[in-house]
Structure prediction request, 239 residues.
Amino acid sequence: MKTFLLLLLISSANLFSQKLLTPANVKIDAKLIKDEISEATWYADNAGTKIEIGSITTELKKLNKTDLLIKTTVKMKQAPDTKWTDSTIVKTANFEPVYHSSFNMMRDVVLRSGKTKVTGYYFDKKAQKKDKIEIPAADYFDSSSYPVIIRFSPLKENYTADLSIFDYNPDAKKGLLKAYITEMKKTDLNGKKVWAVKTTDDIQDKTTTVTYYIDPETRKILKQDMELGGRKMTLETIQ
Prediction:
């Protein structure tokens, strides 16, 4: 009886344990990945009224047979001359990170991903302080790439998973963290059948959730609903 109960406990733990996705085991359909540029309008919710606050342009570009560039450019409506540009290079086959940079008016970040550590720098423009980055890390995704990973991964009802990610934010957390796919289901968006994929992560202690609405055929993100500590925002892709 004791042996039976022990086996039952082990099998139950395996049944309910959450799968941790890494570049070593992720399933990416690389045939779906094509060069593209898309633009989304960024809205904030103000007592039920949508207020346009900016736009985000996302570019996917195959640099060669193995590497993929993911580039996002943010423009704020009230400051049209200032830009926030993030560039991430990953391996197309499994999204293993190679390089990440993020430049805006407040700070610059550059990260280079090795097999056992991440190196680079963080430059605070206001304080004029530059910090060297050297943090042990292995088998992870760059935090900026996991929405794209979801696009090109198998989509199925009620699927959940954890993703191993790396992020560097002096005001939040640094190093290896997790992102979470908490819900995946089919739904309707403007009369079209789409996948709704709800996510959160450890960067802000799971206080932020993002739901991606993905076209099942093109795998493009048509809309994003964001909840940030009580605030609601939306990104709507321009068709």
Summary: The longest helix spans residues 2-16. The longest strand covers residues 174-189. Residues 33-237 form one domain.
